Amino acid sequence: MKKFLIMCAVLFIANVGCKKTNIDGGRLCGCSPVVGPQLNLVIRNSAGEDLLNDKTAGAYSKDKIEFFMKDGNGKVVPINFGIRPPFSYSDGKFNFNTLFSDAIGVLQESTDKIIYLKLGSGGLHELKFTVNESRLDMEKLLIDDKEAERAKSNAANFPIIFYLTE
Length: 166
Prior knowledge:
6-stranded antiparallel beta sheet, 5-stranded mixed beta sheet, 35% strand
């Protein structure tokens, strides 16, 4: 019984004493979850069709997409990404596949915050972003120096999704 009470006390103290989020601007502790900005990007053609859906003519498969950044020496550094299928949320359904990456959190401390996206044999797109520090979300995305359209939703847990029209 003593061991059980000691273990409960240790768990209680660890839980209360450990800061879970960066609310007051202080440093996070080792038990804080790793949360950072995530890029969610829909790629569509001028007719509004999903270019990440393999049933669409001219669609891009994952192996035809290059997603990278350049380090201080100009060396190309690949960024991990995936293709997320359409999903349902509280009051509806989002009908597009999305290119997503949470690996861009590394760029959050960078001064340039530039990502490069190459789709198939087409041109190279330059993506720049700003991050909302309090929410750790992407606040604004510029694609080739033009502000990207943002998906609209009233759902609280709906991710921030941007559109790129090819």
